[in-house]
Specification:
Blueprint lengths: L4 E7 L5 H10 L3 E11 L2 H13 L2 E5 L6 E9 L11 E4 L4 H12 L3 E6 L2 H4 L4 H10 L3 E3 L8 E5 L6 E3 L5 H11 L5 E5 L7 H8 L5 E3 L4 E5 L5 E2 L3 E2 L4 H13 L4 E8 L6 H8 L3 E10 L2 E9 L8 E2 L11 H9 L2 E6 L12 H11 L3 E5 L2 E7 L9 E4 L5 H14 L2 E4 L12 H8 E3 L1
Parallel strand pairs: 1-15, 2-13, 2-14, 5-6, 9-10, 18-19, 22-23
Antiparallel strand pairs: 1-24, 2-4, 3-4, 6-8, 7-8, 10-12, 11-12, 15-17, 16-17, 19-21, 20-21
Helix pairs in contact: 1-2, 1-3, 1-7, 3-6, 5-6, 8-10, 8-12
Amino acid sequence: MSEKLFLSGTLEPPGDKSITHRALILSSFIKGEMSVEGALLSQDCLSTIRAVRTLGLKIKISGVGPSKRANLLIRGGGIDSIALGKKPFLVEAANSGTTMRVLAGMLAGRSGTFKFDGDASLRKRDMTRVLEPLAAMGAPVQYHDVPGKAPFTIQGGNLTGGDFALDVNSAQVSTALILAGLSAQGKTSVSTRDVIRDHTTRMMTHLRLPFETENNGLKIIVECLQGDLRARDLQVPADISAAAFFMVAAMLLHGSQIELLGVGLNPGRTLVLDVLKAMGGEIELINERTYGLEPVADLKISYSGQLRGTTIAPERIASGVDELPIIALAMAFADGTSVVRGAAELVQKESDRLRLICENLTMLGINVEQHSDGFTIHGSGPVKHPMNISGLWKCDGDHRLAMTGHIAALITGSDLQIENPESVDISYPGFMIDLRELTCEN
């Protein structure tokens, strides 16, 4: 492979996965017709589309682009019009933890029996952080195999509000309990220790769904929703989690300069920007604006020379836990030592990301120390391209590890074997196409 590879060009990354999920699920509360522009049609989001269609929402998909961005026209009859029938309703979430957790919260407040299941990977993931508080609100949970994990059944429809202080700063859990509280008697409050992505409350504000906040927004309070919401159109910005892979690649390949268009900059998701800037990365925000209530900008990323090691404070992890695999790759080829702690949540993702990050970087020859809640990386300095490493980049079906592996192969000029390469479709179906379009050689 040539030593002259670099990234150049302009790209609009795919629509934000988290926002697309929430737009689909919150549309269950609206009466009327709304459009969602720039939604993501990844495998995870398609799981949510299938589920809400079964609930009775009418969804027309159009304008599908190469990165699986699309426009959705959603028609709803209000939350009380959900067609459940007499048989237990099945949510088949496949690999999507967001589909399972957030819909569990919403449906716990509806009268009916709801069974949730997923693929082999999702069945391994802990669901108690959502299901225990829902049970405390009055929605009994029955596990069909392993306690705390799918498949499980919720008996919904008779909730009482409560006060919940989350042990883990999880936007999925917070959203699930907020949606349950919209169908519960009395008030429901959900508190987090640190700032998390606030897509749900921004969308609630946009749809004029009432709530209150305390403690600088760390505590959210809702009551039982009275009446239906009026539909209001939404725009979905580009996903910063998807943009992160190209950001790191451009910073590690000499001579690179790219522009990423319309990237969402939610205050609870800026870890990758802040860390890369702290490492000496050159990032310029252009044309800052809003889509709906979400802050958005175009990002100009330039190769700026050697990155330097950094430390991520534990309280910042929630603002970019999904980006830690690609951030770790940047740390691997920085000058000096980088430390990540407070990231035990990595073990609970689609794979044991903590272990696999460390094993994969070790395979590249990087000195890595694994901790119970993070890792220490002793950076090797500038990439010596080509490194001509051959080996298996382990993913265990994890889409973010697979995309990180492709970037690792590109920047090192190595013939890495990416395990489960098709898993990128879970969040970014057009990833390889976009990567090829940005990759140049001279």
